[in-house]
Amino acid sequence: MIKRFTAVFVGLAALSLVAIPFSGCEGEVSVTTASLSEATMCLGVDSEMRPLDATDVFATDTPEIFCSVKLSHAPDDTEFRAEWIYIKGEEEGLSNYPIAGWDTTADGTRYIAASLTCPDKGWPKGDYKVILYVDAKEKLSVPFSVQ
Q: What is the pLDDT of residues 29-38, one digit of tens each?
């Protein structure tokens, strides 16, 4: 009985391994070794895009707000995106409002920085975030506020 069960089990296992490629999976499968870490909101970046003057609270007249993040182990042409979102605050009727997006490609291990310049009337007070993507997959969300 055990030999028969083992033979059936091995046969089914082998059949499932053969059937996997034909199981109806459509589309492209994307696997990357790239990762993000050390995401930091700051007032500036150095020549290597590392954060300077880290903070998560900005004044309404801050000339430019930066987000610096370390990209690691990225293969050639890895897609990186930073999406700036106004979550809520003094601007009535606006919530989770996309402000801007920035895209680039990169490889290797390095810092990347995205920034936004101050609007003509100053930054609206409130809560914000920057969502960071690698190859169109959300990896990190970095909150900050303007007071």
A: 556 789 999 9
pLDDT of residue 4: 44
Paired tokens of 100: 């801007």
What secondary structure, in 3-state letters, does 7-66 show? HHHHHHHHHHHHHHHHCCCCCCCCCCCCEEEEEEEEEEECCCCCEEEECCEECCCCCEEE
Element (H, E) at 73: strand 64-89
Phi-psi region of 49 (alpha: psi -120 to 50; beta: other; left: phi over 0): left
Q: Cα 128 to chain center, whole Å?
A: 15
Q: For residue 146, with 0-12 CB atoms within 10 Å meaning exposed, 13-18 middle and 19 or more buried, which class applies? A: buried
Ranges of residues in the chain with a pLDDT under 50 are 1-25
Could you report the per-residue pLDDT of 8-36, keeping only the tens digit for each? 333 434 434 444 444 444 555 556 789 99
Q: Which domains does the chain have, with CATH numbers?
A: 31-146 (2.60.40.1490)
User: Angle at the Cα of 131 (from 130 to 136), degrees rounded to 5?
Assistant: 150
